[in-house]
Amino acid sequence: MRLIYLILIILSSYSYGNVQRFILPSEVIKESVTVQVSLPNTYDHSDYFKYPVLVALDGSTQFDHIAASVKFLSTYAIIPEMIVVGVSTPSERIKYYTHTELEAFKNRSGRAELYSKFLQEELLSKVRDKYRIGPFQVISGHSLSGLYTSYLALSGNSKFNAAISISPSLWWDSAVLTDEYETYQKLKGRKPTKWFLSLANEPVEMKSGFDAMLAALNKAPPLNIDWHSAQFPNETHDSTPLIGNAQALKAIFSGWNAVPGIEVMSLKSLQKFYSDKAVEYGYSFPMSVHQFNVYGLKAAYEGKTNWGVEILETGVERFKSSEILWDSLATAYSLENELTKALEASEKALSLAKKNNSLFISEIITQNTTLKAKLANK
């Protein structure tokens, strides 16, 4: 167990990244939108690897904590590494987050399809042009935007593979989305979809709308939707996105971590494990830097150093610019008492760390110095 704690300490230093921001003028919704992009800390470790994307609606308030949760959870291979895209709230929030028009909000509601066109044809197109994103997309919304993500999950009329709905305003238009559920429940040809919905300690209409939807889902589960729900009675409507999104990510990617305990897997077993996930998610996720790092280090520290070396050697083949993986490979070689190989890997890690101005440079220098002393005294 002491070795497991050591791994956790090592990995905890690997949860950083960079955030970029730009303004996107939209022809569809006729306004300029602020877009924030959080890239994984491993983004520059290759020039080919493509990442899933998570779109965080109401990005001005929700982006930071969602991006932090993604970085933390993906560092430990609990979820995949993802690019997080925060989108500022549209000026007409009710207009674009609702799919039905009310007389009281005539011309100011019911334009969800227009907003979907903006997201899919303008936002995601722009992000795809600027960054390496893979064909797996998650969207998160809260309150009215949670109603919108609920609509996307059920209607099947979107390019998103998973939806998060935190305290969704399912009461809208006399709970019309629940009334329409029977139509959506029988929808055929829908791609595999994940959906998480949750509720905090909410007013009567929020709870009644949520309970009605749960009753419909439990009575007749929707075709090809893997849905999960949670309730957080100690949270308010405003505080619940913090815990709700973290729980949603863990639910959507339940069972993602191949070796959550102290057991270990060989590289061949890991590759099969994630290949099998393609059936569940409709997308074949390639192994990322943090997955190679977590599983390689764990195998090495748990006495399967040959497995650890193989995993990490494959990792550096695929991510040649990753100081993280080169440094971990040096650790695995050292545990095998292959000190010359360890120092060579450590020198590579140190060179990359200096080139990339890495946050990990002090740890890498420490291992490099230790390995040189061991070889000198050998």
UniProtKB/TrEMBL annotation:
The keyword Lipid biosynthesis does not apply. Keywords: Hydrolase, TPR repeat. It comes from the Bacteria. TPR repeats lie at residues 323-356. The keyword Hydrolase applies. One of its GO terms (molecular function) is hydrolase activity. This is Alpha/beta hydrolase.
